[in-house]
Amino acid sequence: NHLVSNCKFYCQKSSSKVRICQVLSSQEFGKNVQIQGWVRSVRSQKEILFLHVNDGSTLQSLQVVANAELYKRCLTFGSAVKISGTLEKSPHKKQLVELQADSIQVIGDCNPVDYPFKIKERHSLEYIRQFPHLRCRTKTFGSLLRIRSEASTAIQSFFKDNGFVQIHTPVITSNDCEGAGELFQIEPAGREQGPSEDEPHFFSVPAFLTVSGQLHLEVMTGAFPCVYTFGPTFRAENSQSRRHLAEFYMVEAEIAFTHSLEDITTVMEDLFKTATECILSRCSEDVELYHKYVAPGHMDRLNHMLKNKFKVISYTEAVDVLKHSQQNFAFRPEWGCDLQTEHEKYLVQHCGNIPLFVINYPYNLKPFYARNNEDKPQHTAAAVDLLVPGIGELCGGSLREERLELLKSRLEKTGLKDTYQWYLELRQFGSVPHGGFGMGFERYLQCILGVDNIKDVIPFPRFSHSCVL
Ligand code: 4AD
């Protein structure tokens, strides 16, 4: 268990206080220890009380054996307890150790009648979603949170190991990187009516929550070969879909000195595979629980993705495939139109359920920064989306337009030239060809765990008409 081998536990100041993940693999029978956690099950057999206690450090619970007469009435499912006792070799095959309790203190009791989770019941993700303030107490969501934490570390380690410098890009910004108009504008509370002469914008200019840290990362490619950022991102999408949130986490990377889209797709594929392997080895029990109860058979699908080289198809070929398919799409595929989720899912299936890079999108579909391929008869940009089974788009990226004149003329056409004067300047002082991508962290978790709804992989989901807590 990596938690045991890698961690210094702060509660160890008193040597007898331990985490359950440490105890479960311990062979120190006879040792006196103290644990703190929550009761997962209670069963009494004559004078003996058997408890399972979990403290969030691992999926498994520790069996505690106690005097039924003393503790039967005060210990209920969900209550918080502090238990001191002696570690004993367990007579049961499935567990190495159990705790013979000397004293049990109830720190916080739990009324089983009102508590929304019932002992020994496996509640669905939809059910526990109704209790955002309590769902971390369920076994399933506890696993998700440990996996999410480990996934975040695995991603950061990938970038560190590959020489990327982490940049803390701002949450508050004056630009609309994607130009899609899905911005949340911010003003101090009470100024919702907008600026007036007496009360101008707080920042003097309209300011927004970031939709992407890309432009700030691009600034950094003027001084660093590889940079990344990983943080909350906001989009005012009026969508109730299973893959959109108003607040999500995005991993973004930017690579300098490259003219090749393949350099970008190589990093995307390596990031996906390396981080996933790391999570599978560090959180195997938690991932297994997900694959068993939430997405049966998903481990095979995931292994299939990890074993195979990701495929590549051009947007033009993809539209051809869609047009020649026998599918009854709600949206008719047409060159020049965005691929819909139904198209993306079909394309991945068509390519054997291996993640698929779709490259060279119509120039007019992509934001001002995408590099012009200057091709004919169809005019495309050096942009790429990574599509994955069951979800569709996981990553979006491109080479960035580094040629000053082309960039100027595009910004002029879109009326953005004045706003992006500073961006044009980047191309004037030691500019280098560069490109990058962004990966939605929640969609990544959905993909590796086989979770259907994005709201089930983030602690506190925010989406239109919902900002609970
Ligand atoms: O494709 P997108 O819009 O790309 C960008 O923002 C680029 N500026 C990134 C870059 O090149 N640095 O978003 C990237 C990814 C999507 O592929 C998707 O996985 C995720 O971010 N994403 C969302 N995830 C959840 N909810 C939403 N509303 C999302 N919008 C995008």
From TrEMBL:
- Residue spans making up a coiled coil are none
GO BP field: asparaginyl-tRNA aminoacylation
Q: Which Pfam families match?
A: tRNA-synt_2 (PF00152), tRNA_anti-codon (PF01336)
Q: Is the keyword Ribonucleoprotein in the record?
A: no
Q: Which domain of life is it from?
A: Eukaryota
**GO CC annotations?**
mitochondrion
Annotated keywords: Aminoacyl-tRNA synthetase, ATP-binding, Ligase, Nucleotide-binding, Protein biosynthesis
Main EC class the enzyme belongs to: ligase
Return the Gene3D superfamilies for the record: Bira Bifunctional Protein, Domain 2, Nucleic acid-binding proteins
By its UniProt entry, which InterPro entries does this protein fall under? Answer: Aa-tRNA-synt_II, aa-tRNA-synth_II, aa-tRNA-synth_II/BPL/LPL, Asn-tRNA-ligase, Asp/Asn-tRNA-synth_IIb, NA-bd_OB-fold, NA-bd_OB_tRNA
Instruction: Give the EC number.
Output: 6.1.1.22
- Entry's HAMAP family? Asn_tRNA_synth (MF_00534)
Q: Which NCBIfam families match?
A: asnS, PRK03932.1
Please give the family membership noted in the entry: Belongs to the class-II aminoacyl-tRNA synthetase family.
The protein's name in its UniProt record? asparagine--tRNA ligase
Tell me the organism.
Answer: Lepisosteus oculatus
